[in-house]
Amino acid sequence: MITTFDDYPLHQTAEPVAVPGTGDRNYYDRYFFNGYDPDGGFFFALALGLYPNRRVVDASFSVLHDGVQRSVHSSARAPLDRAAATAVGPITVEVVEPLRVLRVRVDAPDQALAADLEFRARTPAVEEPRIIRHTGVTPTMDYTRLTQWGTWEGRYRSGDAELTCTGAPGTRDRSWGVRAVGEPAGGAPPTEPPQFFWVWAPLHFDDHCTHLALVDDAEGRHVYESACVVPLLPGADESTPLEHARTADVEIEWEPGARLARAATLRTAGWDGKERTTRVTPLLTFRMRGIGYFHPAWAHGVWHGEQETGGSEWRTADLDPAAPENVHVQQLVRVESDGRSGIGVFEHLAIGPHRPSGFTGTFDAPAAR
Length: 369
Known about the structure:
Blueprint: E1 27-36, E2 42-51, E3 56-65, E4 68-77, E5 87-88, E6 91-97, E7 101-108, E8 113-121, E9 126-127, E10 131-135, E11 138-158, E12 161-179, E13 196-200, E14 203-204, E15 209-216, E16 222-230, E17 243-254, E18 261-270, E19 275-287, E20 307-315, E21 329-337, E22 340-351
Antiparallel strand pairs: 1-2, 1-12, 2-3, 3-4, 4-20, 5-6, 6-7, 7-8, 8-11, 9-11, 10-11, 11-12, 13-15, 13-22, 14-15, 14-22, 15-16, 16-17, 17-18, 18-19, 19-21, 21-22
């Protein structure tokens, strides 16, 4: 199983690079990108994931523009060589300069999508704290993520619209580890009802960026809590200490009858006692099933055959926001924080009970609170 990456000093175990350090079928390694018009004209995202123990690699590219979200999805048998694992069907990710410049290309005429876009880092890459979650005794999440803010240059097409990015803001991440994907593993079903409450909010300001990520249990207690202020390049790099918050919290105002935010307030307190309040107001709502999350056909890590490509498309106005496949979203948000204005993304996913929100079932959505 020797591959090109074995010629570099990258080994973490006594096995060749192609062999993961765990035999867990849900081990994965993923790229994610988003980009958007600060005025709300468009939002796009791309995800590419490798699942070496499932021998699957898949990718999706999705664009929300003029009320239509259009996606291309592709899946294939994963190559052993990691150097060949960043291209799936019509979708390619290229690391031009590690941690600074990445390029994404899409050529999917059957789905009326194309792109040639370059992500240029605006900040150093930030390592988020490792997430570990169990269902009973089974680890369902154990992964690390890096997050980075940047801008986009290039062009893409969705339907008949030709769109140009010149300094469009966005975010990318890289995550790797164990996360439940693909077909169920079998065995006895869990005795606990599903529960996961997630908020992820990377925000851009003129002279800095900020980040907040939370996971709550059913009572609303933070079982994962991280927030920081991120300096800009070139004055900082990955060795520059970050300004981490001591505490972080979020209050979400929910749309009536849906697990969808109509506004939210983020609150952090620093180790110096300074408090920061950030108000986010949605401009657009991007459904994450456009890049595979909860997609009924193109979910992550599912075997479709040696090489398969397909598409999906919907009008935002026609969606039922309370349907389970529409609950996981990234919202383009306008930001106000202590007299400063910004732009960014407010991602949220609420499955199961969450007492502060009034949620008691798996996907119930009571009247707004």
